[in-house]
């Protein structure tokens, strides 16, 4: 990917996102829509995966047919909300390797605190896609990418549902080599680090907590 930021303006993505934003949308609908959008965003973020050719036999004849080249890609869920995106993407890319980065935001400082880290080996020669629905302050995204780079990841991408201008800027400054794919960049962050107008707390909305 050459662009640092790609906003997927496809009407299906935009329509589904609007329903997710509505405060009265149920947990069940939110979860289903997140799954659907995650697949459309994954389609975009994997658009330039390299292909190779394999000899196959159709019922009619032999042909050289395209298949994805190289090692299985890696999906990294930034817990806990990342899991809502991960489920859908795994349906699309079932052979992907999966890792988890557990970070929570200290409500006072808004800084990320790590509580879990488990990722596949050999990150260095795989495409690694980190997923988190909300790129808000960018603090946890930057911290997660820092950790993944320390583990050897070189070909990294970041997939989110919604981003703030502040979060995009922070990621661009810290990790200009990591392209971001999102469905929308909203107006701003509020004083609590929430994206406005946003959709509220993505984790609470997908898991029905509060
Ligand atoms: N995390 C969320 O779930 N929502 C926001 O608006 C910001 C961070």
TrEMBL record:
Keywords on record: Allosteric enzyme, Glycosyltransferase, GTP-binding, Magnesium, Nucleotide-binding, Transferase
What the entry lists under Gene3D superfamilies is as follows: 3.40.50.2020
- Give the GO molecular function terms: GTP binding; magnesium ion binding; uracil phosphoribosyltransferase activity
Q: Does the keyword section mention Transferase?
A: yes
GO biological process terms, alphabetically, are:
UMP salvage; uracil salvage
Q: Which GO terms describe its cellular component?
A: cytoplasm
Binding, uracil: 195, 200-202
Q: Which pathway does it serve?
A: Pyrimidine metabolism; UMP biosynthesis via salvage pathway; UMP from uracil: step 1/1
- What InterPro entries does the annotation carry? PRTase-like (IPR029057), PRTase_dom (IPR000836), Upp_B (IPR034332), UPRT (IPR005765), UPRTase/APRTase (IPR050054)
Binding of 5-phospho-alpha-D-ribose 1-diphosphate: at which residues? 80, 105, 132-140, 201
Name the source's superkingdom: Bacteria
SUPFAM superfamilies linked: PRTase-like
The signal peptide annotation in the UniProt record is none
Q: Name one Pfam family in it.
A: UPRTase
Q: The Phosphoribosyltransferase domain covers which part of the protein?
A: 7-209
The protein's annotated catalytic reaction(s) are: UMP + diphosphate = 5-phospho-alpha-D-ribose 1-diphosphate + uracil
Cofactor note text: Binds 1 Mg(2+) ion per subunit. The magnesium is bound as Mg-PRPP.
* Enzyme Commission code: 2.4.2.9
The family assignment reads: Belongs to the UPRTase family.
- Which NCBIfam families does the record match to this protein? PRK00129.1, upp
Provide the function of this protein.
Catalyzes the conversion of uracil and 5-phospho-alpha-D-ribose 1-diphosphate (PRPP) to UMP and diphosphate.
Name of the protein in its database record: Uracil phosphoribosyltransferase
Species name: Haematobacter genomosp. 1
Ranked from the top, the taxonomy reads: Bacteria, Pseudomonadati, Pseudomonadota, Alphaproteobacteria, Rhodobacterales
């Amino acid at each position: 990917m050459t662009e640092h930021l790609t906003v997927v303006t496809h009407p299906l993505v935009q329509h589904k996102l609007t329903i997710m934003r509505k405060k009265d949308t149920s947990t069940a609908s939110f979860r289903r829509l997140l799954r659907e959008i995650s697949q459309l965003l994954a389609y975009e973020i994997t658009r330039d995966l390299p292909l190779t050719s394999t000899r196959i036999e159709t019922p009619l004849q032999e042909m050289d047919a395209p298949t994805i080249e190289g090692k299985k890609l890696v999906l990294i869920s930034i817990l806990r909300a990342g899991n809502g995106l991960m489920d859908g993407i795994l349906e699309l890319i079932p052979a992907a390797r999966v890792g988890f980065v557990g970070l929570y935001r200290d409500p006072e400082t808004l800084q990320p605190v790590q509580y879990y880290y488990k990722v596949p080996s050999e990150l260095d020669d795989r495409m690694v896609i980190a997923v988190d629905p909300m790129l808000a302050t960018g603090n946890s995204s930057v911290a997660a990418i820092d950790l993944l780079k320390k583990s050897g990841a070189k070909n990294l991408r970041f997939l989110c549902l919604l981003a703030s201008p502040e979060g995009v800027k922070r990621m661009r400054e810290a990790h200009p080599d990591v392209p971001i794919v999102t469905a929308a960049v909203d107006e701003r962050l509020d004083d609590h680090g929430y994206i406005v107008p946003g959709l509220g707390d993505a984790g609470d909305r997908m898991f029905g907590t509060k």
